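Hi there. Long-time user, first ticket. I'm pasting a complex I've been working with (about 389 residues overall). I'd like to know whether the download I got is complete or cut off, because the file seemed smaller than I expected. Thanks.
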Amino acid sequence: MSDVDCVLARIRTQLKLDSETEQEILAEIRSHLEEAVAQAQAEGLDEAQALARASARFGVEEEVGRDLQATHAGWGTADAVVAAALPVLCALILRWLAFAPDGTAAGWLQVLSRPVFWIVALAALLLPLVRFGRWRYALAGWAIFWALTVISVVSPALRW
Amino acid sequence: MKDLAVIETILRNRTHFFVEIRDGLGLNEKMRAMLISSLIFLAIYGAVMGSSASLWQALSSAAKLPILFMATLIICSPTLYFFNVLFGSNQSLTQNVALMLTAITVTSVLLLSFAPIAVFFLLTTSGYQFYKLLNVAFFAICATVGVLFLSQGMRIVSAAGEEGARARRWVMWLWVIIYAFVGSQMAWTLRPFIGAPSMKFELFRQLGGNFYTNIFASIGEILGFFVVR
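Hi, the file is complete. Here it is re-exported in full:
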């Protein structure tokens, strides 16, 4: 195990995130560390000194790990919560805003003239797009549910 | 995000979470996070349940489902606390409530994870009885997992006092049965949550019958034995 790997392993002991996020964070730290080590070596320090200086710039490994944990904790759950809740809420909004309470498309054209429909629809569209990278599953689910809502209203016979 | 970090800790690192409850670390922050998250998740699932009938039913169920869980928690928490104390537990009432909230939080997160499936069946089926039983099944699964979390939490939190540990485990399981009965009766009292298609919207329905006979009647109708009116 290289010295950089040892530093990363110590940071990792403080992380309790999903493995994908952990790998992303550690890869970023590795690239910064290696860059700093290379720079220090170019200034004439040997490898051990260069790594010590680079590590010192980041701080004590355990503290760095704890800070990273505090910064990133909850994002994995937020992704899952958004992926479950956003499509559901958007589908319900469409169901109750665009269609009559009995689920038929009666009066559906008048709905298009209501500003509130467009405000909600745009908000529902833009919200996932702002953080598209993290919320891609929510966006996919949202598209499926809107399509299903429209299909179930246009062709009620398809419902079981 | 801090609230969701608490949920992530419960799901990923539960032993550490229960040890912190045992040591009384950050109890108020944890309880606040669990309470807020549970209320939001339960409200979303309530809206999904009520959406099969009408917009008013959706709004009503979104408000009633969190009330159902919190009212049941408030009613049942002194029983668990006093029986635990009687059998040698050194936990405070707040620690007991934190453990129960953990179970409710796990249940509500799992219910939220079932929400897309419930919406899928809401959009693609029209059978009221089927939708009702589907939701009962989801609740049963989520509540079972929540109770298992509570059991594990109780074991870890009361590990310090070995005296009466066996009796406290029995108390916990008996309490779970009481909690389930109180919860189902509370659900029956606060009904409707889904809203029968043949009936007008009502905030609360006239009392009568009970939860279990209604579920058996729904199963009977699904299997074709009779029609529920």
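A couple of notes from our side: Chain B has one domain: 2-222. Residues 24 and 143 of chain B are 25 Å apart (CA to CA).
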